[in-house]
Design brief:
The protein is of the alpha/beta class. The protein has eight helices and six strands, in the order E-H-E-H-E-H-E-H-H-E-H-E-H-H.
Length: about 200
């Protein structure tokens, strides 16, 4: 199986996330794009109830897409959601052709050397890197190639949506139907999420 992983907190999942996944689906030859919502994000506050809400919203956003799938792999472990551990488990679950591919934004990729077991992780995945700023220069990441990170850049224009801004809009009672799917919007309203 040719597998591409899209891991994140997705708090909440929005159209920029889906735009990235759609781009990968159309421009690469993967059998599956696997969304993996983090259960216990290592560097963020952990709220078990909110983790399940995030998972449910990703399922709603991904439904109906032929090669999109959502994994609860990080919800089946009590440990923090470290990418290295998750990737190792995926190699046990799936018969992987080549390497697992991993979608990541430049903002996270710039911190990749600080990730848990980064030297082992870099041998297991090919990173597909998406720009997260307008002032983007590919050459700024050459040093990571020299350190053994396997990556390529996706030619998708930067889409300026962040989950932080989205949560702020929800808290302020602003419309969000331009940023999230109608199913996710309904879920947020029904469950009273992100209210101050």
């Amino acid at each position: 199986m040719k597998l591409c992983v899209f891991q994140g907190t997705f708090n909440p999942i929005h159209r920029a996330h889906l735009q990235v996944a759609d781009y990968v689906s159309k421009n690469y030859d993967f059998d599956k794009i696997l969304f993996i919502p983090a259960f216990k994000p290592p560097h963020k506050d952990y709220d078990p109830k909110m983790s399940f809400h995030r998972f449910n919203m990703v399922k709603l956003a991904a439904q109906g897409k032929l090669n999109f799938d959502v994994s609860d792999i990080e919800f089946r472990s009590d440990n923090k959601s470290y990418t290295y551990n998750t990737i190792r488990e995926l190699y046990k679950i799936y018969d992987i052709e080549g390497k697992i591919n991993f979608i990541i934004g430049t903002d996270a990729f710039e911190k990749i050397e600080s990730w848990y077991e980064t030297d082992k992780l870099k041998k297991l995945v090919h990173f597909i890197v998406f720009r997260r700023t307008n002032d983007f220069t590919k050459g700024n990441y050459d040093y990571l190639k020299q350190k053994g990170y396997d990556f390529s850049f996706a030619e998708l224009d930067f889409c300026d949506i962040s989950s932080t801004q989205l949560r702020s809009r929800i808290a302020n009672g602003e419309k969000i139907n331009d940023i999230v799917t109608s199913e996710v919007e309904d879920y947020i309203k029904e469950n009273g999420l992100y209210k101050n």
